Sequence to fold (445 residues):
Amino acid sequence: MPYRAWFQCISGCREKYELNEVIYQCKRCGDLLEVKHDMDELRKHPPEYWKRLFDERYRRTEWPYGSSVWGKKELVCPNVDNKNVVSLYEGGSNLFWAERLGREIGLEDLWIKQCGNSHTGSFKDLGMTVLVSMVKQMIAEGKSIPAVACASTGDTSAALAAYCAAAGIPAIVFLPKDKVSLAQLIQPIANGALTLSLDTDFDGCMKLVREICSKNNIYLANSMNSLRVEGQKTVSIEIIQQFDWEVPDVIVIPGGNLGNTAALGKGFLMMKELGIVNKLPRIVCAQAAKANPLYLSYLNNFEEFKPVKAQKTLANAIQIGDPVSYKKAIRVLEIFHGIVEQATEDELANASGQADRTGLFSCPHTGVALAALMKLIQKKEILPHEKVVVISTAHGLKFPEFKIRYHESRLEEVTSRFANLPVEVPPRYDVVMEAIDKRLEKVPV
Fold:
């Protein structure tokens, strides 16, 4: 394969490093790195070549191209040999036409990209397949990497544990104690990862895992490692592919550590440079009001960015007050004429509850995105005729406590407007029919 990619500093020094080097920040200035591709080589093929190639590979069986990430290998990570790819057939998740929900909130064309319909139940699989494959490549080249580690609020740890288990590489996960759902906690445990429960928040876990990795040659798997971004950016390409290569008007995505916002933009910019698309969507980053440093920066036109102390929120995966990828995310939002909106606990819970009533089963983070969308429609910043895609980052089944407590009206700061509890009745025809008739009376004809 004639294509190649490398790490490059995102700042002015433009330092370059090989992808098989254990490095996360520029040695000269300390800023974050990003993966750069040989675009001159990629541009030797016209846009139609790439569209046809990706369509021919999509969900087929030739290894590893049936994966919707590795089916775009040339644009993702050409440096990994196919024999070292660690894939669980990720990507290819449903693009759900939310016709009924769209009508209810005032949109003619609403779609939900259900990234939670994946191997471990979240979009994190898209990035983790690339990172763990690169680790396997480095080990095959003779590098000593005893383990791979991450700090997590749940989904990253699940993805890391699964991909490392498939590769036979030890995994270590740092989780904030009592701040992840039981469904999320059991995933790394079941996959054999060393699971460390720390009495701190995500930012505290992140600080410690960075120290552990830097001093012990353990490979860091958090999103400051830009290999993750390369896999996550394929959601952009996949959305366009599923729309027969047409670009929607707006994409709404939840934002925590902000690597996903950066990845979304990077995918579109790469497609535009290759001529695959000729326009860019607006990107909306949605934050929980209790963990909203990017939103606060947006209110000040991004003139400054200050970390905040994240408060406890139902959207625990984005309960992050000091996101490592904020520079990358701000750069994307400025290019894409982006918007940042926030959602309160009541807004995110009820947005999720309303979406569920139309056939979805939304995680709280998708609730943040939906609530932000509803607010922007009311503000007329998103118009009824626009085609809008909401990125659903995880499967609702990973958050059973959130769902149960919502319907039992036991969530703090939330008035459950769409609660729906079981109706207990004796096993008698007349009583059962009375309950049915009572419910059907409320259903509009």
Residues 101 and 355 are 6 Å apart (CA to CA). The first strand starts at residue 5 and ends at 9. The mean pLDDT is 95. The first helix runs from residue 39 to 42.
